[in-house]
């Protein structure tokens, strides 16, 4: 449209609270001449690990010291509300991303557009994650870690000694959400060891959905796997009898 106003670019760091986003934020704050920064945004999810909340608080303090705006945005519907409608997310039906996490991003973009700005995001993809960058192909996204040739393995070594991460990166290379349907056995073991109340809550929600789906389908069902054998009961058993010991062994080696 000829009379349509052109939106002004506004540069924001999108931070999850994981290792790559914290490393990237430090880089941005230390290179203001190269990377203009109008603000930092965190999409605040109830299903973030508790240690992530501490990391995000730490980020907010660092931004305040530099006079950089720090914004937290929650999805308009809670995880529990969406669970009550859709059941526990599965690998095939990941509403936890499309209807939950991405809603926070949509709110931020819509608000900025309403006041005349177009969001340009700094994303924490590393130099060896070119395939992830290529899949997105957006001129509104920028990758400082890639620009500086920072490898994910380099950040991982650094993160293992950052106390705010609560030992997570001694046994993991990436951090998702607590109740992710893509969680690994090691994820579940970490949750069981450090946040047992959250582990039990996750299992209870899985079981409720499995019971409902089994009644609907007339056959066994698993939230965690396409094989119904690997349901919540199996997950709890294998974590408590095998994977918790693997986690402990890895952490002891890292000391």
What does this structure look like?
This protein has 255 residues and is α/β, with parallel strands linked by helices. It has two domains: 1-173, HUPs (Rossmann fold, 3-Layer(aba) Sandwich), CATH 3.40.50; 183-255, no CATH class. It is built from ten helices and five strands, in the order βαβαβααβαβααααα. A five-stranded parallel sheet has the order 3-2-1-4-5, sandwiched between helices. The protein starts with 7 loop residues before the first strand and ends with a helix. The model has no long low-confidence stretch (mean pLDDT 93).
What is the total number of structural domains? 2
Mean pLDDT: 93
The rounded Rg comes to: 20 Å
Order of helices and strands: EHEHEHHEHEHHHHH
Shape: globular
Strand order of the largest sheet: 3-2-1-4-5
- CATH second-level architecture of the largest domain: 3-Layer(aba) Sandwich
- The total count of strands amounts to 5
Here the CATH topology of the largest domain equals: Rossmann fold
| Helical run tally | 10
**Largest sheet at a glance?**
5 strands, parallel
Regions with little confidence, pLDDT below 50 for 5+ residues: none
Residues in helix, %: 40-55%
Counting helices, strands and paired strands, the structural category is: alpha/beta
How much of the sequence lies in strands comes to 5-15%
At the first level of CATH, the class of the largest domain is: Alpha Beta
Measured between the Cα atoms of the first and last residue, the distance is: 61 Å
